[in-house]
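To whoever is on call:

I kicked off a structure prediction for a single chain this morning and the downstream step that reads the tokens threw a length-mismatch warning. I double-checked the sequence; it's 292 residues and nothing unusual in it as far as I can see. Pasting both halves so you can look.
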Amino acid sequence: MYLIANDYRKTIQDQNLAQITQSSLAIRQDAEMTALDECISYLTQKYDVLAEFTDTNVYDPTITHGAADRVYLDAPAYLPSSTYAIGALTLNGGNVYICSTAITVPEAFNAAHWTLLGAQNSIFYAVFPYPVFDLTQVYAVGDKVFWHGHTYSCIQATVIFDHDTYLQFANTNNVPLSNIFPDDTVNGSKNWTDLGAYVVPAGSLLNATYFKAGDNRSKKIVKTMVDISLFYLHQAAGSRVVPDSRHAAYLQAIRWLEMTAEGKITSSVTRIQPQSGSSILYGSNIKNVNGY
């Protein structure tokens, strides 16, 4: 799921959230799915919703990841009566640790046998190995990009039209794109060499080459999702009336989505390439800058 329980703490107390969800993860996630559908319905025309609304999973040191994958830290509390294998995770003093020395005989927590990963609920995300492909950029032979899970090397430089060539298209709508998408099924291989799928090695959370501490979600989207989810959770909580504050927050969230969809507000969510859904529906005639 996109949201995690910790996302609600700025808006509602844990005990109140437990009350309206009946302490059920399934009930909370059902409301989140409804909120997700609502957000996507407004943003899908302009924004890359598939890239934004990815899962926020608990970190597992045994699995590999892809670029932009997002994880957060959580683990069972440390038990002095238990044994632990190398690579096991535990929670102690509000921090999550990974076992670096096998504990074959139960013992009190010994920091020398563990490596600190970070505070509970800390979020990390896998960094891109190269810049994400951008249709508007100028690429030279040998430049490398990331696109849809793969890395590519440029073998055909970006086409830059001179003014005389530009004039031949008459209207801006007729001007072809200067770049070709690396995964284009027709011309992609003529412009880019596929270097293969990019994989982040398992257990590399603390390696800055692969992961960065921080949240790569849009903060506004997170707040919007929380507000919409809480509205639906209150609605579903038996005979309880939705508090005025929750109703107002829901209406404000929907208004923000509407304004973003209309182009009156620009979201930090990645735009679809080429850009679509702008308020300008038609191109214009290409001007001859040498004409008098």
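Update from on-call: the warning came from a stale cache, not from the record. Cleared it. Sanity check on the structure: Residues 144-197 form one domain.
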